[in-house]
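Much of what follows relies on a compact textual record of a protein's fold. Here is one such record, which you should read through line by line:
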Amino acid sequence: MKRTVDSQSSRRQFNTTVAIASAAILGQVASAAAVHSAANTPKSIARENKVKYSLNTSTIHGEVIPIVEQIAIAQKAGYDAMEPWLRDINKYTEQGGTLSDLKKRIKDAGLTIESSIAFANWIVDDDTARSKGLEQARKDMDIVTAIGGIRIAAPPAGATDIAPLNLDRVAERYRALLEVGKVAGCTPQLEVWGFSKNLSKLSEVLYVTAAAQHPDACVLPDIYHLYKGGSEFYDLALLSGKRIHVFHINDYPDIPRDKITDADRVYPGDGISPVSKILATVFESGFDGVLSLELFNRTYWKQDPNLVAATGLQRMKKAVADASIQ
């Protein structure tokens, strides 16, 4: 009898030990699986929640829509930010509005100003014209910061139809612009312009940003302009994603580079550009900044701007989601 009791006791102890050990092993397996899953999650998925979505107001024909309405449209569509044009801000103040009121409207709408569009002639050869261009840039930057903005586009305005400039001189001029921005608290982003005779290619912009030798030097890429100027999208991998704060997102139909124009831009996914592959490339390089929808499509301008803004945001989000499977 004693031997039977001891035997049953031993079996119960053995079963308990096995159960505890099994639970421990299953817990370790589950933990390992969770770690493996996290480690193998595509980086673009991990960054999706960090990326901000911005509406460049050219997309809704901001030139004819007052900036107060632009704010309402961006808010209603669900954007995180908007990218206004200085002309529209100036029009607002010329009609009696104040920058402080505009800043409050933007903040109350839950939006930020991550970038802005202006065309100061900071790059030109003529010393007098360039000095005036830098002064204009300073004024533009002061306006941008007054409404809560932190960046401004720096395209090669004034040098689109002239002979190619010496890139080392361009780098010196971009550095001077960066210094103006440092004082103003507004970073100028060197923008690729595919139709221009200067800074039309990513290679030129990469050279200038490096040659400027300034910690704030950064690039503002644009899918349409990269195509128009003849750059290869895979070359974006040569650029640290941390040097891209804002990326202009769009697509284009199957039109030759020398024939295509700004007006031909379409929603992401409606053209032939590998938008999601482009995003996957910059995500892999460390980009977690702002995607700003910039279109100039005349057909869209005839439509309800609320519909255009909402459609554009949906297409950008889909492109980001698709980037996770590249």
Summary: The CA atoms of residues 196 and 263 lie 16 Å apart. The chain has two domains: 1-40, 43-323.
